[in-house]
Amino acid sequence: MSAKQLEQAALATKTAFLFPGQGSQKIGMLADLAEQFSGVKATFAEASEAVGFDLWHIAQSGEGLNQTEFTQPVLLTASIALWRIWLELGGIMPKYLAGHSLGEYSALVAAGAMSLGDAVKLVNLRGKLMQDAVPQGTGAMAAILGFDDEKVIELCAQVSASGQGSVEAANFNAQGQVVIAGAKDAVDAVIALAKENSGKAIALPVSVPSHCSLMKPAAEQFAEALEQTAIELPRIPVIQNVNAEIATDVAQLRQALTAQLYQSVQWSKTMQFIQDQGVQYVAECGPGNVLANMAKRLPNIEKAFPLDSTGRLEDALNAILMAEGKIA
C-alpha cells in the first residue's frame, strides 16, 4: 500500500490506536503471540541488532526490564511487533495514532515517521539521559486522585513555593487522575496535602521523575540526538503529548519530542481530540490494558480493546472489522 493509499484508508475509519508508555512492561510479554507469529521475534531481532543487546531476552527473563534505558526500547519493540501482526492479519488502518510518553515514539514508528532501528536507539539514549539527570532516590512520582486538574496544579505550586523542592503535574491522564513528578520531598508533601484535602495519593514505583523541569538537562542533550535522526511527517496523524495537536512539519515534531521530556503529557486532551474527530473505537497496541481501560470510561468511545495476547488480538480484529463494516 502506497503512502497515499495508507492515508486515505486511515481517514475513512473511526478507530484510533494507542501505544502505552513505561509501566506497562511485564515479564514474558508477547510470549504466546511469538509462538504463533514469527514476526514477533523477527521484530525483536531487528531492534536488538540496532541497540546491540538482546531485547527479547530482557522481555522474557525480566533481567534489567525495569531499568529505564532497557524498558523503553523493549516496550517500543513490543508495540511495533503487535502493530505488524495487526497489519499482517488485515487489520484496518486507524484514523489517528497516539502514544503515552514513550508510546509516542511507537506511534511515530507505526506511522512511518522514523525507522524501528532509529527509534530504539533514541529511546535507549532517552532512558539513559533521564536516569542520569536526577540522582537515584532524589526524584519521585505519584498519582493524585479525586481532584480536578487545577487543584493538583495548585497543590504543586503551594509545595514548590514552600522551599521543599520542585514538583509539577506530569501526566493529565483522566478526569480526577493526575500524576505529579519532582523532588522526592516535594512529591511526598503533595501526597500529604492531597490526603489532608480528602483526596487519594499513590506513590509510583519509578526511578525517574518524568515530564517535569528536572528533565530539562536531559532534554538539551536529547535534542542533539533528535537532530541527527532521520524523521519524516507521519503517514497517519500522530497526536502529540505536549499539546494534543498534530505536527505540520518535521521541525515542530522534533521540538515537541524534546519538550515532551520536561512538559506534561496532555492525555486527557488527546483523548478528547480523538472523540471530537469522530473516533468510536480504540485499540491499545502494546503490553497491558491501562490505556484501553481509561478509554472505556469516555462517553464517545464505544469499544476499547487491548491487543497483547492471541485471544485479545483476535477479538479486537474481528470486532473492529465488523464495526467498521469490513466484514458482516
From TrEMBL:
<dbReference type="InterPro" id="IPR024925">
    <property type="entry name" value="Malonyl_CoA-ACP_transAc"/>
</dbReference>
<dbReference type="InterPro" id="IPR016036">
    <property type="entry name" value="Malonyl_transacylase_ACP-bd"/>
</dbReference>
<dbReference type="GO" id="GO:0004314">
    <property type="term" value="F:[acyl-carrier-protein] S-malonyltransferase activity"/>
</dbReference>
<dbReference type="InterPro" id="IPR016035">
    <property type="entry name" value="Acyl_Trfase/lysoPLipase"/>
</dbReference>
<dbReference type="InterPro" id="IPR050858">
    <property type="entry name" value="Mal-CoA-ACP_Trans/PKS_FabD"/>
</dbReference>
<comment type="similarity">
    <text>Belongs to the fabD family.</text>
</comment>
<dbReference type="InterPro" id="IPR001227">
    <property type="entry name" value="Ac_transferase_dom_sf"/>
</dbReference>
<keyword id="KW-0808">Transferase</keyword>
<dbReference type="Pfam" id="PF00698">
    <property type="entry name" value="Acyl_transf_1"/>
</dbReference>
<dbReference type="InterPro" id="IPR004410">
    <property type="entry name" value="Malonyl_CoA-ACP_transAc_FabD"/>
</dbReference>
<dbReference type="InterPro" id="IPR014043">
    <property type="entry name" value="Acyl_transferase_dom"/>
</dbReference>
<protein>
    <recommendedName>
        <fullName>Malonyl CoA-acyl carrier protein transacylase</fullName>
        <ecNumber>2.3.1.39</ecNumber>
    </recommendedName>
</protein>
<keyword id="KW-0012">Acyltransferase</keyword>
<feature type="domain" description="Malonyl-CoA:ACP transacylase (MAT)">
    <location>
        <begin position="18"/>
        <end position="312"/>
    </location>
</feature>
